[in-house]
Amino acid sequence: MSSTGIFLDAHATTPIAKEALSALVTQLGQPGNPHSPHAAGAVAHEAIETARKAVAELIGAAPGEIVFTSGATEANNIAIIGLARASRHKSSRRTIVTSAIEHPSVLEASEALTKEGFTHLIAPVGEDGRLDLDAFGNMVGDDVLLVSVMAANNVSGIIQPVQEVAAIARAAGAMIHCDAAQAGGRLALDVFDLDVDLLSLSAHKMYGPPGVGALYVSAAIPTRPDPIVFGGGQEQGLRSGTAPAGLIAAFGVAARLALAQREEDALRLATLTNRFTAGLEALQVRYRRIGTDDRRLPGSLNIAFDNCDAQELTERLSTIVAISTGSACSSGQISTSPVLDAMRLPQSLKRSSVRICFNRYSTEADADNSALALSRALREIEVATGSIAQ
Ligand code: PMP
C-alpha cells in the first residue's frame, strides 16, 4: 500500500506502467523536435512513428489512420466539431445523435454545435446502463450526420452496443464516432469489426501518461474532420502543435503492453473483483450492484450500500482506499452523476453508490484490505449516525 492508499479508481486514471514511464523519461531526455530536419529530430520522429504503429495495431487500424492528440477530450472535439464543420457545405444533414451517458467532451461538443445550426438528439439508456437501441434507432433518420456512442462508460463501467449502433447508423447513411477512452487496452477493439469511422483513445486510461491520446480517422471516411486548432499543420493537418514525442512514445509502449496482456489482465481483474465482493460478503457488508454485470469493463464495479452516504464513505476512506462516488456535494446541494441520473436510479441508490475499478497492478492483498477498510468505514458511519448501537 502506498501513502495515498490502495488505488481502486481506474475509471479515473490508471497507474503508469513502468515500461511506459521509462520510455517517457528516455524520450524526454532527448532534445529533438520531431518536425526538425536533423538527426535529433529524426530520433523523435522515429519514436512517434513506432508508437503510431503500436496504437494502430491495438485497434486494428493502419498507422496512417492514427492522429495523436492531447487526450480523448481533444479527440472527441475534433471528431464531432471538426466533422460537423467539414460537412457543412458537403451535406444537408444537420443532426448529431449521442447517448445520454457520453463524456462531457462529447455531450458539450455536440451541444456547442447547436449554435452552428445543428440539432443534438440524446438517446436514453436503460436501468442496466446500456443504450436503449430502440429509442436510439427511432432518432436516427436521414438528417443524421453523425452518431457518437462510447465503447464503455466511465461511471458505470458498462460496455455499450457499438456494433449495433454502427449498423443502425450505416443503414441511415450516418457516420459513426466511438469514444473508446475507457475501453482502449481493456477490451478487444477492432475498428473494422465495430465498423466505426472515428474512435477516440486516451493513454492515461491504459497505463500510459495523461496528456496524450489519439483519434482514429478511417481512411474510408466519407468526410474527414476539419481541424479545430490551427497552426503548423502537424498530424496530417488535424492537430497542429509540436507533437510530444515522450508522451507519444510512452503511449505506444502502453498500447503494446495492453495488446500483449489484455486477456491475462481481464482474467486477473475478474478474480480480484470476485475476491473483493466475496470479502465484503464474508464481512457481512450488504451491498447492491448497479448496472448489468455480464457486460462491464474488467475490474469494474458500481455498488451501493444501504443507508450510506457515499460521499462520507469516500471521504473517510480517502487516504486508505481511493474510490469515487456517483454524487458530489457543492454549495450544500447534492448533485448526482448524470450517468446514474440517465439510468433513472432512485435517489437513495445514487447517493449511496461508489465506483470501484481494480487495475493491472492491484493485488489480492489490495482486494482483501480494501474490503476490510470499507466494512470498517461503513460500521463507523453507522455508529456515528446512530443507525446501530456501538
Ligand atoms: N471519454 C471518457 C469516456 C473518459 O472517461 C474520459 C476521461 N475521464 C475522457 C473521454 C477524456 O479523456 P482525457 O482525460 O484523455 O481527455
Description:
- This protein has helices spanning 18-28, 39-58, 72-87, 104-112, 133-139, 162-171, 191-194, 245-282, 310-317, 338-342, 347-351, 364-384, and strands spanning 6-7, 66-69, 95-99, 119-123, 144-148, 175-179, 198-202, 213-217, 287-289, 300-305, 321-322, 324-325, 327-330, 333-336, 353-357.
- With 390 residues, the chain is an alpha/beta fold.
- It has 2 domains: 6-14 and 262-385, Aspartate Aminotransferase, domain 1; 18-256, 3-Layer(aba) Sandwich (Aspartate Aminotransferase, domain 2).
- The protein has a 7-stranded mixed beta sheet, with helices on both faces. A 4-stranded antiparallel beta sheet has the order 9-10-15-12. It has a two-stranded parallel ribbon with strand order 1-11.
- Bound molecules: 4'-deoxy-4'-aminopyridoxal-5'-phosphate.
- 4'-deoxy-4'-aminopyridoxal-5'-phosphate is lined by residues 71-73, 103, 105, 150, 154, 179, 181-182, 202, 213.
Outline the fold blueprint.
Blueprint: E1 6-7, H1 18-28, H2 39-58, E2 66-69, H3 72-87, E3 95-99, H4 104-112, E4 119-123, H5 133-139, E5 144-148, H6 162-171, E6 175-179, H7 191-194, E7 198-202, E8 213-217, H8 245-282, E9 287-289, E10 300-305, H9 310-317, E11 321-322, E12 324-325, E13 327-330, E14 333-336, H10 338-342, H11 347-351, E15 353-357, H12 364-384
Parallel strand pairs: 1-11, 3-4, 3-5, 5-6, 6-7
Antiparallel strand pairs: 2-8, 7-8, 9-10, 10-15, 12-15, 13-14
Helix pairs in contact: 1-8, 2-8, 3-4, 8-12, 9-12
The protein binds 4'-deoxy-4'-aminopyridoxal-5'-phosphate.
